[in-house]
TrEMBL record:
Coiled coil: none annotated. It comes from Novipirellula aureliae. CDD domains: DSRM_RNAse_III_family, RIBOc. InterPro entries: dsRBD_dom (IPR014720), RNase_III (IPR011907), RNase_III_dom (IPR000999), RNase_III_sf (IPR036389). It holds the Pfam family dsrm. GO terms for cellular component: cytoplasm. Digests double-stranded RNA. Involved in the processing of primary rRNA transcript to yield the immediate precursors to the large and small rRNAs (23S and 16S). Processes some mRNAs, and tRNAs when they are encoded in the rRNA operon. Processes pre-crRNA and tracrRNA of type II CRISPR loci if present in the organism. Belongs to the ribonuclease III family. The keyword Nuclease applies. This is Ribonuclease 3. Mg(2+) binds at residues 57, 129, 132. Homodimer. One of its GO terms (molecular function) is metal ion binding.
Length: 251
């Protein structure tokens, strides 16, 4: 074996090892391994740019976005378009995708050129790109039913963080997620009192989780009262000051 053949053999062995490692990480075995090879190959390590993961990254970005949008639409019916957009933007960001790729170990499966391998660590954009390209490869090889549950598993923490971080605009949804996750109950809202003439009514509502009742809150309509009641419940659950406690003095 000459030096060229030996070099090719070593490279082939390394690629096979990385493909196997990646399939173990994602818990999926490809029917067409060439798709995964393309997904893991950075342009610097490809014989031709079209053999790299750039085209798969393009598709993976769309698959990721659609999957997350469908997920949020189904799981968070009380969120408006603006809230859903903020959550989705957080979850599909380069920061989030790169974080997930590294936590899975996909960065160890990358096939790159020598110039890139001299770096101590890969750029975040490169690691984020391989996550999207692997998503596309799984989608093409196995279809929606294969990629959807994996994305829900991989992205679960990022979705939770995004929902809780923007919760100031929708306390009811935040309380629902917390109560179902930590208390195994779904919050209910109980009308306590209503005052005023028909054209200027005010409503007092309290949140109830299981057998626990929380401090109620007033609102100019039932929807606002429920949001404020949820905010009070969240504050109680986290031993924080009650934001709408003074409302209980209303006559």
């Amino acid at each position: 074996m000459n030096l060229v053949e030996e070099h090719v053999g070593i490279e082939g062995s390394d690629q096979a090892s990385k493909l196997e490692q990646c399939q173990q990480i994602i818990d999926y075995r490809f029917r067409d391994p060439s798709l995964l090879l393309s997904a893991l190959t950075h342009a610097s390590g490809a014989p031709h740019r079209l053999d790299s993961n750039e085209r798969l990254e393009f598709l993976g970005d769309a698959v990721l976005g659609l999957t997350v949008c469908e997920w949020l639409y189904e799981e968070y019916p009380e969120y408006n378009e603006g809230d859903l957009t903020k959550i989705k933007s957080y979850v599909v960001s380069r920061r989030a995708c790169g974080k997930i790729a590294i936590s899975l170990g996909l960065d160890r499966c990358l096939i790159v050129g020598r110039g890139v391998t001299r770096n101590r660590s890969f750029p975040k954009s490169l690691v984020s790109d391989v996550f999207e390209s692997v998503i596309a490869a799984i989608y093409l090889d196995g279809g929606t039913e294969i990629i959807r549950p994996r994305l829900r598993k991989w992205l679960a923490d990022e979705v939770r963080i995004a929902v809780e971080s923007q919760g100031a605009s929708n306390f009811k949804s935040v309380l629902q997620q917390y109560a179902q996750r930590e208390l195994s109950h779904t919050p209910m809202y109980r009308m306590i009192r209503e005052v005023g003439p028909d054209h200027r009514k005010a409503f007092m509502v309290q949140a109830v989780i299981g057998e626990r009742e929380f401090i109620g809150a007033w609102g100019n309509n039932k929807k606002d009262a429920e949001q404020r009641a949820a905010a009070n419940a969240l504050a109680e659950l986290h031993d924080q000051p009650i934001p709408f406690q003074d409302d209980n003095k209303k006559e």
